[in-house]
Design goal:
Strand content: under 5%
Number of helices: 6
Radius of gyration: 18 Å
Largest sheet: none
Number of strands: 0
Oligomer: single chain
Number of domains: 1
CATH architecture: Orthogonal Bundle
CATH topology: Vanadium-containing Chloroperoxidase, domain 2
């Protein structure tokens, strides 16, 4: 496990080191949740167009519950594993680029988990209605990388967050199918 953590830190230093000041504003903007409000509005529009108001509102409720579940699950994992964020890790925080300084723990990335949960749910929910829906994957990939760029997550935090998020998104999709059949 120590070897994996060491490789993770090395990969983090490499990816984080790719940044430069001319891109900092872009990545700081991209990493904020409010930046993605237009994308959420688009998803809402697509859901309503594909499913109508009754089923669409139900799906919005499912997504809200899923986001809450994802957020709380990540918080439990962060407290359990108690891994320091790169910006708080004294073994590397003097040799990396740090653009934000959160104090909570690092493992797993909530941004990665939640964005992949929402994206996975939306892709499965909308793929029969909109062929280009797979382009949504650009969002969580950029969002996740931004966390490494600004110095607050290791690659493993992001990768495991992606996997957990996809599992959560798919699980909530399956749950929604069960209930959608009952809505007329």
């Amino acid at each position: 496990m120590d070897r994996i953590i060491q490789y993770d830190k090395q990969l983090f230093q490499y990816l984080n080191g790719l940044g430069n000041e001319s891109w900092d504003t872009f990545w700081l903007y991209l990493t904020q949740q409010f930046t993605w409000i237009p994308l959420f509005a688009l998803m809402l529009f697509l859901v309503m167009k594909a499913y109508g108001w009754k089923k669409g509102l139900f799906l919005v409720l499912i997504v809200a519950i899923m986001i809450t579940f994802s957020d709380q699950f990540v918080n439990v994992l962060k407290e359990y594993f108690a891994r320091l964020r790169p910006n708080n890790d004294p073994t590397i925080n003097t040799v990396i680029r740090i653009l934000k300084r959160p104090r909570s723990y690092s493992f797993v990335s909530g941004h990665s988990t939640t964005s992949f949960a929402v994206t996975t749910f939306m892709i499965f929910t909308l793929k029969k209605h909109f062929k280009l829906i797979y382009f949504l994957l650009i969002w969580p990939l950029l969002f996740a990388y931004s966390r490494v760029y600004i110095g607050v997550h290791y690659p493993i935090d992001i990768f495991i967050g992606m996997l957990i998020g996809m599992l959560i998104g798919y699980t909530f999709y399956k749950i929604s199918l069960f209930f959608l059949r009952k809505i007329h």
